[in-house]
Specification:
By secondary structure, the protein is an alpha+beta fold. The protein has 4 helices and 8 strands. It has one domain. Helices cover 38% and strands 25% of the residues. Strand 5 and strand 6 form a beta hairpin. Helix 2 packs antiparallel against helix 3. It starts with a strand and ends with a helix.
Length: 138
């Protein structure tokens, strides 16, 4: 589903993938309650005081640096099964970066922020190739 945000058409879905498997799907079409939006504002305010990213202290992080920092928090939350932090960090990424489509995390916890590739559900079909030789197809 596409919708309009500040004059841009964007996907309403943000997906977190770990090792290629969908872990979280966030639907931007469902508005956040005001209290949760206030919490995202507080997250932003805290980050204006500086963040540490890859061992470097950034006094005034830009939006992508903030997204990288929040993504690391999200990955830590997934490892710890911290549902509250998972929800907050997903909401932050989806709402502060409306054109972000995917967060891809690998087995070593490296990650990519994907802005140009919509997630498409994948269906795995298991079959025996020998069945194709003996079963007529109509």
């Amino acid at each position: 589903m596409l919708w309009i945000y500040q004059g841009y058409y964007i996907s309403g879905i943000f997906v977190v993938l770990v090792n290629g498997e969908k872990q979280i799907e966030y639907d931007r079409a469902k508005p956040l309650p005001a209290k949760q939006m206030e919490f995202l504002d507080k997250m932003d305010l805290q980050m204006t005081q500086g963040i540490v990213l890859n061992g470097v202290t950034l006094a005034d992080p830009d939006p992508v640096q903030r997204a990288q920092f929040v993504s690391m928090q999200l990955i830590a939350a997934l490892i710890d099964s911290n549902d509250q932090l998972i929800a907050a960090t997903c909401a932050y990424l989806a709402n502060r970066l409306p054109d972000l489509k995917q967060l891809k995390v690998d087995e070593n916890f490296n990650f990519d922020l994907v802005f140009d590739e919509e997630y498409k559900n994948q269906v795995q079909v298991a079959f025996n190739a020998n069945d194709l030789k003996t079963t007529p197809v109509h």
